[in-house]
From TrEMBL:
Taxonomic lineage from the root: Eukaryota, Metazoa, Chordata, Craniata, Vertebrata
Gene Ontology MF annotations: serine-type endopeptidase activity
Keyword Hydrolase: yes
Subcellular location: Secreted
Role of this protein: Serine endopeptidase which is involved in the processing of hormone and other protein precursors at sites comprised of pairs of basic amino acid residues. Responsible for the release of glucagon from proglucagon in pancreatic A cells.
Name the record gives this protein: Neuroendocrine convertase 2
Domain P/Homo B: 412-548
An example Gene Ontology CC term for this record: neuron projection
Active site: 118, 159, 335
Family from the record: Belongs to the peptidase S8 family. Furin subfamily.
Alphabetical list of InterPro entries matching this protein: Galactose-bd-like_sf, Kexin/furin, P_dom, Peptidase_S8/S53_dom, Peptidase_S8/S53_dom_sf, Peptidase_S8_Asp-AS, Peptidase_S8_His-AS, Peptidase_S8_Ser-AS
EC number of the protein: 3.4.21.94
GO BP terms: peptide hormone processing
UniProt entry keywords in alphabetical sequence: Cleavage on pair of basic residues, Disulfide bond, Glycoprotein, Hydrolase, Protease, Secreted, Serine protease, Signal, Zymogen
């Protein structure tokens, strides 16, 4: 096996050609240098000085919890800590979706339709009926236009109704609580309530009325038993691809996915729906910022919302609508987290209906907040372009206020390109205590039409077999030094035959990075008994843009991730432009 090549950190050009000329002398070539030269040398000299008086200014965007004034007549509104957290149910004040700011700016989901793909919706519920979009609804479990939940004594089929209330429950009507996007329309797609799932039911649901439905929310996937590796089949994959390419008049259907409830025994990168590039996979935090016991971690999760509290506080659950006109305080799981995200995305779509499915992911990366989220297992880290991420929470908790403000001015990101950066297809042995290290050095298709310079998603397509699949660990490190955990130990997975067959592990953690350089894959065992395995393929696929996605965006908050990323892009573009002109000068002189 080739040893790991040294990591190349590709940032700035060499210091020798790093100075530039300015009328007052040579200054360091950088964005700061250029601005200093402009202000101190090129602008007219100072002629007189006036003393100025001080006055007060308030920082915008800073939200004092005591200043929030949202009055709703709905009896459960004050229990909905995930909307406005004032410390109810032993929670941490301020740890919420910041919907109040979006509402105060006038965004409530008007004109946006969200489909709940689940076990049906009680569309006669008085808190849902006025926002129910019957024309966009369908029942694929029993093939009729009425996705009403099937009755059982234990109210087992209450899931979809609870999810629908989180998104679209009406406001100020004295009933239950308030949806995140309380003026949005909700459609019911009943598709979970039949003895077996089929590819055609999934595909039909995901592609139902893609010109009417804007956002699809799914809180389901392969069994969370910690030993399943499964994903969308042929028709569903095609339906998803069609959705992002053709849905919403070509801007793309928005698929929101719950990252899974398998807890530390499972890894959501083994769930092909959650780990798909076309879905926005959402994890959950509890009301004091910690991880929920059922949270699964993986590198494909983009962001988080909220589920219940860990304490046995009966009011710490997610308050929402329930079957047969009832309300509940007890909705929970990452199932509860995905619809909250769908609601936030509906607010963003009202602010800017031109957002594409990729714009929504960029906005999620840029506006999600670390806030007070705390993962005891995985540290928060910064990637190669300074974006802070966590292996369980993704880029943090969604911030509805931040998202609508950025969405309003947002310019659609540049065209997306796909580059196969390299592929290793020889057979390599893996043994306990002796991990396999492989390297791919790539120019990211530079010089070709499909050059990828600014990363969005990265996929590592891997074929590997092991004497115990659950003991396998796979990590991948980018040229800028960001390590993604592609697969962690799953103690219940004792497969020794199937392994992973061309499985596309996905990471969002290298978002915005320059992919040129050396990528390193490490495959090993975290085991109790010695294991062995064989890796047969690692293919590295890069997805992203050629031109800088943030360079033309309007910055209103100079402390924001957008401001930081745009500054970085400007510096890099300047470096590269000067590099190019120096090279052409030198070639002319030779
Ligand atoms: Ca029906
Ligand atoms: Ca209500
Ligand atoms: Ca799972």
């Amino acid at each position: 096996a080739p040893a790991a090549a040294p990591l190349i950190r590709r940032k700035r050009i060499a210091p020798l050609i790093y100075m530039m000329f300015c009328p007052c002398g040579t200054v360091e070539h950088s964005w700061v240098g250029l601005i200093s030269c402009y202000f101190f040398c090129l602008l007219p000299q100072v002629e007189n000085v006036i003393e100025q008086e001080g006055f007060s200014r308030q920082k915008r965007g800073y939200r004092n919890i005591n200043d929030i004034e949202v009055n709703m007549s709905d009896p459960l509104f004050t229990k909905q800590w995930y909307l406005i957290n004032t410390g109810q149910a032993d929670g941490t004040p301020g740890l919420d979706l910041n919907v109040a700011e979006a509402w105060q700016l006038g965004y409530t989901g008007k004109g946006v339709t969200i489909a709940i793909m689940d076990d049906g919706i009680d569309y006669l519920h008085p808190d849902l009926a006025s926002n129910y979009n019957a024309d966009a609804s369908y029942d694929f479990s029993s093939n009729d236009p009425y996705p009403f939940p099937r009755y059982t004594d234990d109210w087992f089929n209450s899931h979809g109704t609870r999810c629908a209330g989180e998104v679209s429950a009406a406001a100020n009507n004295n009933i239950c609580g308030v949806g995140v996007a309380y003026n949005s329309k909700v459609a019911g797609i009943r598709m979970l309530d039949q003895p077996f799932m089929t590819d055609i039911i999934e595909a039909s649901s995901i592609s139902h009325m893609p010109q009417v439905i804007d956002i699809y929310s799914a809180s389901w996937g392969p069994t969370d038993d910690g030993k399943t590796v499964d994903g969308p089949r042929e028709l569903t994959l095609q339906a998803m691809a069609d959705g992002v390419n053709k849905g919403r008049g070509g801007k793309g259907s928005i698929y929101v996915w719950a990252s899974g409830d398998g807890g530390s025994y499972d890894d959501c990168n083994c769930d092909g729906y959650a780990s798909s590039m076309w879905t926005i996979s959402i994890n959950s935090a509890i009301n004091d910022g910690r991880t929920a016991l059922y949270d699964e971690s993986c590198s494909s999760t983009l962001a988080s919302t909220f589920s219940n509290g860990r304490k046995r506080n009966p009011e710490a659950g997610v308050a929402t609508t329930d079957l047969y006109g009832n309300c509940t305080l007890r909705h929970s799981g990452t199932s509860a987290a995905a619809p909250e995200a769908a609601g936030v995305f509906a607010l963003a779509l009202e602010a800017n209906p031109n957002l594409t499915w990729r714009d929504m992911q960029h906005l999620s990366v840029l506006t999600s907040k670390r806030n007070q989220l705390h993962d005891e297992v995985h540290q928060w880290r910064r990637n190669g372009v300074g974006l802070e991420f966590n292996h369980l929470f993704g880029y943090g908790v969604l911030d509805a206020g931040g998202m609508v403000k950025m969405a309003k001015d947002w310019k659609t990101v540049p065209e997306r390109f796909h580059c196969v950066a390299g592929s290793i297809q020889e057979t390599h042995k893996i043994q306990s205590g002796n991990k396999l290290v492989l390297a791919i050095t790539t120019e990211a298709c530079q010089g070709k039409d499909n050059f990828v310079r600014y990363l969005e998603h990265v996929q590592a397509v891997v074929t590997v077999n092991a004497s115990r699949r659950g003991d396998l660990n796979i990590n991948m490190t980018s040229p800028m030094g960001t390590k993604s955990i592609l697969l962690s130990r799953r103690p219940r997975d004792d497969d020794s035959k199937v392994g992973f067959d061309k499985w596309p592990f996905m990471t969002t953690h290298t978002w915005g990075e320059d992919p040129r350089g050396t990528w390193v894959l490490e495959v090993g065992f975290q085991d109790e008994e010695p294991q062995r395995g064989v890796l047969k393929e690692w293919t590295l696929m890069l997805h992203g843009t050629q031109s800088a996605p943030y360079i033309d965006q309007i910055v209103r908050d100079y402390q924001s991730k957008l401001a930081m990323s745009k500054k970085e892009e400007l510096e890099e573009e300047l470096d590269e432009a000067i590099d190019r002109s120096l090279k052409s000068l030198m070639s002319k002189n030779n």
